[in-house]
Each structure stands twice: as C-alpha cells, then as structure tokens.
Amino acid sequence: MTVIKSTSYDQSEILKSIMTLCKIERFCVDATYGNGEFYKTIPRPVRCFDLDGDLKGVEQASSDSLPLETASIKSLVFDPPFLTYVRAAREGNGNMVMAKRFAGYWRYDELEKHYRETLQESARILEYKGVMIFKCQDIIHNHKMHCTHANVINWASDHFRLKDLFVLAAKNRMPSPNRAGAQKHARIFHSYFLVLERNKTNWMRGLK
Hints:
Oligomer: single chain
Number of strands: 12
Distance between the termini: 44 Å
Radius of gyration: 17 Å
Structural class: alpha/beta
Helix content: 10-25%
Mean pLDDT: 85
Shape: globular
CATH topology: Rossmann fold
Number of domains: 1
CATH superfamily: Vaccinia Virus protein VP39
C-alpha cells in the first residue's frame, strides 16, 4: 500500500494525492487557470476561469464572482497570486521585472481582500462537503512576516474546515520582490496546498 505524504517537491504528486484522498477523478472548477500548469499530468477541470479573456477554452471571470449556481459543484482549485509590491498598474512599478513576470498585489490588505472574497464565493458555489484546493505561500511584506497559510485557514473558518495540508518544497528559492541588502528573514523555499472542506456552519445563510 502506498502511503500518501504531506510533503513533496512535485505539485503534480500533491494534486494526485489530494484527488486520491478526496476521491476526485476530475476537478469541477479552476478559478484561476492561468497557463494550466497544474494539468500536465491530471485531467483539466470541467470549467476553467481566469481574468485573462484571451486564453483558449477558458471563461473570463474573477474568482470572487463566478457564473455558477449556489451549491452546484463538488471541487474547486484556487491558485492566486501571492506576491506583493509587484502590481504592474501602480505608478513606478510597471517596469519591475517581477511585475512583468508575475501577477500580484501592491499591499497585503489587497491580497487579503481577494482571498477573503474568493473564499466567500467558493463557499457559495460548493455543495456541503465539497472541497476547495487553495495554494498559498507565506511572505514578507513591509518588513513583516505574514503567515498567509494560517491566515487563510482563519479567514475560511466560517464556512470551511481544514481537511488536509500539503507542503510543496522548492529546490530553488521562491520568487520574491525583496530588494538587495542584508538578509533579515529566512528565504522561503516552500508553499502550501490547503484542502478546505465545506461545512454546515452558516450553510446557505448570508451567502449571495
């Protein structure tokens, strides 16, 4: 019998492990499809959404406002931006290499707003015991450590329980907009896959 581990250097291994444990043959929805990096070795979800309307076979929509019926799906994948200080639309920021290569936010409260609103929307469209796969990474913003994975678990607690947590380790340092200078924090070489299960708390109450 193969033992499923909570850590891996391969995100495909983690996704397959989640699918096995949750008895998922194919995810119902990806709310932030991007370049479809997740689906090189697993089936592409039934419906894929992204802010970019030019992606082939992908519906244009924001993860916090999806054109889906309430309690209509069993599984959802959410892989949002996690970087700050890289939002290209901000004055003086658009020419940064990180702004061109990665989507992101200018301030941590913008990240929090997007994450919270997507959690609320996901709670609306997921059926009872449906699962949300939430990829996130802890970051340093404004010289402060933000334990994002713990924050997400807390922000989700009104509508979800934490079913599982996987750690994706990186052989190289993760992208960072940090400027050169003396190192003040440990370099982050990992991210998280949170498996959030829709619970009965506030079920169908206060959801749009």
